[in-house]
Known about the structure:
The structure is a homodimer. By secondary structure, chain A is an alpha/beta fold. The first copy, chain A, has two domains: 7-170, 2-Layer Sandwich (VC0802-like), CATH 3.30.2130.30; 182-394, 3-Layer(aba) Sandwich (Rossmann fold). The first copy, chain A, has twelve helices and 16 strands.
Amino acid sequence: MIGGEPVEAVMVRYGEVFLKSERVKRRFVSAMAENIGLALEAEGFAHRIETYRGRILIYGDDPARIAKTAARVFGVVSASVCTVTTADIEGITTAALKRAERRLRPGMSFAVRARRSGVPGFSSQELAAAVGSAILERFDGVGVDLTHPDYEVSVEAREFGGLVYDEKIPGPGGLPYGTQGEVITLLSAGIDSPVASWLMMRRGCRMLHINMHGGRFGGADVGRKVLQNHARLSSWVPGRALDLLVVDMEPFFEVITALKEPRYRCVLCKRFMLRVAGILAEERGAHAIVTGDNLGQVASQTLANMAVISAATTLPVLRPLIGFDKDEVVGRARSIGTFEANPGEIGCAVAPRYPSTAAPAETIARIEEEIDAVGLAERAAASVRVIRAKNGAVEEAAPTSDDT
Amino acid sequence: MIGGEPVEAVMVRYGEVFLKSERVKRRFVSAMAENIGLALEAEGFAHRIETYRGRILIYGDDPARIAKTAARVFGVVSASVCTVTTADIEGITTAALKRAERRLRPGMSFAVRARRSGVPGFSSQELAAAVGSAILERFDGVGVDLTHPDYEVSVEAREFGGLVYDEKIPGPGGLPYGTQGEVITLLSAGIDSPVASWLMMRRGCRMLHINMHGGRFGGADVGRKVLQNHARLSSWVPGRALDLLVVDMEPFFEVITALKEPRYRCVLCKRFMLRVAGILAEERGAHAIVTGDNLGQVASQTLANMAVISAATTLPVLRPLIGFDKDEVVGRARSIGTFEANPGEIGCAVAPRYPSTAAPAETIARIEEEIDAVGLAERAAASVRVIRAKNGAVEEAAPTSDDT
């Protein structure tokens, strides 16, 4: 706005995309604006989005709810309901007084935070001083406290207008969804893998989920919890379809449970999953496989086994949780909304009591040769079923099998 | 203690190791106790360590400083100076009153937090009530507030004695150093790789650092900042030697800067580093290569390039920062103590202006064949120089070359 009446809007702050070159930045900001638009459409908000250097403005009927929706979009550092006014001291001061009126009470301290960018004629200090004096003059019994104010009003003079706001809803940060190419996440009913998927989505990766359906072996079943994880994760990329590829693991489990030696099952199983994920990734142009791998949480999660397992695919295996503590994973799962989906530990019906902690690569290669692991993986990848989720809900009816 | 005079000690809490089996738990607790012992020796504290179910107790002359030292050991959730007394209500109450006397003042609210484990005769509620009443009786003008107390005293009745404390120093958490096998981290002068190394050390991995010395090309030099990062990281595993393998990259840089096509240099360079790291890892029994890789931070950090780069080694490449935002990495670097080592961005003298964002695997393979990348890597790995750090300091004199 360059003149006219002050109007309420939502201001979106983005951070890291500032590190990029001008060309990349433009692409990222436009992707983020598109994603915000999809999120608002999914909620049924009529809106108009304007992108500026360092800020995105959204106009619409219910700024408070629009801000809440925008604050869940990847790439967004924070969203604020704000008054957009003229980029001069007078317009900004008037809007600041109006905002302060709603929340500033006698006995409260306040601070004015000012920014100025591309607007000549006054400094940010002068702007802050002008707004601060106007507030002191208008309101009785209030005082300035710049370090621990009870009330904080922010004012910005920018090329495209003046902005006044006094609340910030924190966003997830990260990079706009879809700017980083596709990856495929091994999604389970557990706590870890949904967090791994979310972290990579937040880093801009287009996501594809894959789940290994245990059939009568259950252990890695596509039950209610997997679908719930899948659906909840889709709520973070509103308006976009998120696909879950369900792979039938039953034939493979039939084969490995018939083997004499049970202790290599976990390594064989994980190698098989990576192999199938690798086939499907290449079919669909995904560049990496994402897992919820930790170190040392279960007996088979050793570095030695990880080396043998990784070698089952030529694609990079991304393990965003590899450096996390369990309580950090749980904290993330709670804030993402996937934690309540998994109240307990999920057992695996195929895992042996004493899995090997250092499966020798040669032994594994020999067993895989014997059972034709490559052929099994190719057939499993060919049998895939797709379950699409969108806006937090699964589009296909849930299967009737159990969760365990 | 089972009787005798109350005594001051340091109590160490550990968390995640409780997830393990009894056998693994014993191994982890004893590794953590050993590491705490090494840390205290490095600081010159005479001490005695006792390990119990769920708690480690340290006796020594300066509990406050011992607690601070113990609170930097991986696996430790928190450390508290505490009074160790008899495991009965009377002994605990007397110790709690004595502790409260030092910090509880008229007008303050307080809360008693009680735990009981393996001690019969009273419940934790009864213990809390007894201590609370005694405090109310002894101190004037104080009141109970269980939700937001000004002062909080914790009391525990355990098989081995009563514990009373009112302060907690948070520890790094994670798993005891050395319980997870060895990994090798590509350490640079930057912000990211030291954080990646620290996170994997915190997850229990024995660490080895490797740095690519650019020689006259400078870009990846083992300058003051690399040594500083290396030394600071060694301060997190006191009493243990941390080795930095310095590889001479100059011959490789000579070759790739002579190539007509500059845009594949970043991919060639990273593949070369992984190749050399892989050779040295296998020589020394390390199971994985750790990098500070992010997504989308620099032009060559694309998923497509990551796939081509990863294929240079058969070892798993662990990228603990792959799901991190830049500000999260910076926050970690600050708390670890490696951030101030790197005030600015570090440029690379060899990187082209426009690096390829999707280097074709076949082109890379052809160039590597032409330049004999395998032979170059083997010679580079053979020329390695070792710089050992211990207790936060480098044991070898720093080289005189520049930092850039």
